């Protein structure tokens, strides 16, 4: 199966001399949820804008479903829905009119049935006759998603879709994204909420300073780059770590009741067996033991620091 989006040697330098993207090579598979992570100014929005035909590329090529974004602009743009960060909506129009109008902009024939389906899926049906200016910020963001889905795109870009919305609405949007993916829509998600990518994405791409640092399946990324922390709940509190245990580089909690051992999940030897043996020799007993995998957020921070 060919990728639905293929980016080759893509670079972008603006007139002022700022290089936003440097030799980006990336393929996105049909039907996946791809999480694009990066700090502010990393190049996420520039990359999305180029794929969507909003910003002209500098060097390199981008194809969407086999069509070139420059040569076959109408073909590629008709396949893409974009939900931007900014709440840019037609303030004085009704929800129904603005969503229906957006569908027409893509040359699609009127389809009241499809618009109704989209509005109901986004819990906007009871607001269909309301003007945009009367809606809450969360509802306006739902309208942006409805507009992006109005022409039945194969690909949906969500650029910080839950910025500024409450937890309940965020959960609703995650459910909508899952339903879209199950129907065959490819989702590209940029977010500052690391837990969104951790919960939603099939693959993760990390971009920093205009360069792709890593692209990996989420589970594999966490397996490769993740560290684990083994915490020992002690039977008796310690005031300090015994000298015989110094080589294990343990951390002692402030209350002296917990020893924490950090290890690399990919290492040939974790060192846990040697640690437990040395604990026994030192007469230190514990009543419980548990491990915790590093989060995607911790991995993300580590990757960005490495590339800076």
Classified in CATH, the superfamily of the largest domain is: P-loop containing nucleotide triphosphate hydrolases
CATH architecture of the largest domain: 3-Layer(aba) Sandwich
Radius of gyration: 24 Å
**Major β-sheet profile:** 6 strands, mixed
How many domains, in number, for the residues? Answer: 2
By CATH, the topology of the largest domain is Rossmann fold
Helical amount among residues, as a percent range? Answer: 25-40%
In whole angstroms, the N-to-C terminal distance is 35 Å
List segments where confidence is low: pLDDT < 50 over at least 5 consecutive residues.
none
Description:
- With about 300 residues, this protein is an alpha/beta fold.
- It folds into two domains: about 5-220, 3-Layer(aba) Sandwich (Rossmann fold), CATH 3.40.50; about 225-295, Alpha-Beta Plaits (2-Layer Sandwich).
- The chain contains ten helices and 14 strands.
- A six-stranded mixed β-sheet has the order 6-7-8-3-9-10, sandwiched between helices.
- The model has no long low-confidence stretch (mean pLDDT about 90).
Topology record:
Elements: E1 5-13, E2 19-28, E3 33-37, H1 44-51, E4 59-64, E5 67-68, H2 73-78, E6 80-83, H3 95-105, H4 112-121, H5 137-149, E7 155-159, H6 167-182, E8 186-190, H7 194-200, E9 203-208, E10 211-217, H8 218-225, E11 227-234, E12 251-252, E13 258-264, H9 272-281, E14 286-293, H10 296-307
Parallel strand pairs: 3-8, 3-9, 6-7, 7-8
Antiparallel strand pairs: 1-2, 1-4, 4-5, 9-10, 11-13, 11-14, 12-13
């Amino acid at each position: 199966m060919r990728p639905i989006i293929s980016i080759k040697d893509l670079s972008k330098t603006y007139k002022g001399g700022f290089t936003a993207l440097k030799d980006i090579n990336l393929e996105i598979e049909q039907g996946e949820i791809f999480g694009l992570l990066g700090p502010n100014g990393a190049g996420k929005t520039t990359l999305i804008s180029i794929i969507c035909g909003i910003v002209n590329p500098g060097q390199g090529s981008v194809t969407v479903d086999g069509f070139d974004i420059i040569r076959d602009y109408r073909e590629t743009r008709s396949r893409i829905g974009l939900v931007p960060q900014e709440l840019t909506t037609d303030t004085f129009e009704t929800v129904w009119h603005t969503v229906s109008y957006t569908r027409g902009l893509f040359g699609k024939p009127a389809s009241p049935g499809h618009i109704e389906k989209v509005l109901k899926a986004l819990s906007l049906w009871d607001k269909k006759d309301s003007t945009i200016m009367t809606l809450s910020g969360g509802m306006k963001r739902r309208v942006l998603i409805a507009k992006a889905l109005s022409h039945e795109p194969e690909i949906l870009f969500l650029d910080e879709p839950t910025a500024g919305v409450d937890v309940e609405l965020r959960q609703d949007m995650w459910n909508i994204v899952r339903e879209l993916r199950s129907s065959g829509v490819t989702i590209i998600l940029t977010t500052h909420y690391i837990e969104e990518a951790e919960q939603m994405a099939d693959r993760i791409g990390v971009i920093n300073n205009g360069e792709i640092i890593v692209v990996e399946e989420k589970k594999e990324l966490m397996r490769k780059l993740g560290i684990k922390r083994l915490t020992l709940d002690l039977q008796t509190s310690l005031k300090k770590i015994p000298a015989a245990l110094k080589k294990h580089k343990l951390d002692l909690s402030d209350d002296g009741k917990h020893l924490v051992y950090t290890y690399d999940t990919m290492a040939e030897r974790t060192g846990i067996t040697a640690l437990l043996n040395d604990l026994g020799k030192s007469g230190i007993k514990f009543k419980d033991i548990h491990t915790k995998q590093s989060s995607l957020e911790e991995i993300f921070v580590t990757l960005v620091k490495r590339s800076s």
